[in-house]
Amino acid sequence: MFRSRAKEEKAPADKAPVNFSKQTRDPQAPKGRPTPKRSEAQSQRRSVANTPTTRKDAAKRQREDRRQALDRQRQALAGGDERYLPARDKGPVRKFARDWVDSRFNVAEFFLPMAVVILVLSIVRVPTIQAIALWLWLVVIVLIVLDAIVSGFRLKKRLAERFPDQNRRGAVAYGLMRSLQMRRLRLPKPQVKRGERP
């Protein structure tokens, strides 16, 4: 209990385990592994040098990675590359829904040009033309709703025939939302021509 610490510290050094292994090590590899090639050592040094040391560097690296991922995603949306598409656009079911919508004419995709024409007509200070513009609004809205209902049922039927065992949840709504956009503004870009069967 009252022994000096100097003796206690020296004692374990004397009792250190001695390795009597008869296995000899390669003198060229004293650490038990071959010396790495210069290219490997340089790449390891670069990766160590590129790791962020401060929170500011880590945030900067994260922003850079996010920007690159968004660039890849934008290019995928323009070209249709499945690997980098957002999660909502991935998969064969969504691709079929896109192609099915892109292969046909939809009333809703012409809504914007028709709306501009109707607005111009409603500005004119002639009561009969304003009444015609009002009726045109009603006709366009009814046509869009009817087209959406028919398209929804037909797309649902085609998806059930084509993908009976896969998850089709949300694919019809996805296709209908795509049909509301003008063809040239759709992302991912259309991969089929009008009239072409997907």
From TrEMBL:
Residues 41-53 have a biased composition (Polar residues). Pfam families: DUF3043 (PF11241). The chain crosses the membrane at residues 105-126, 132-153. InterPro entries: DUF3043 (IPR021403). Residues 1-74 are annotated as: Disordered. Residues 1-13, 54-74 have a biased composition (Basic and acidic residues). Keywords: Membrane, Transmembrane, Transmembrane helix. This is Integral membrane protein. It comes from Streptomyces collinus (strain DSM 40733 / Tue 365).
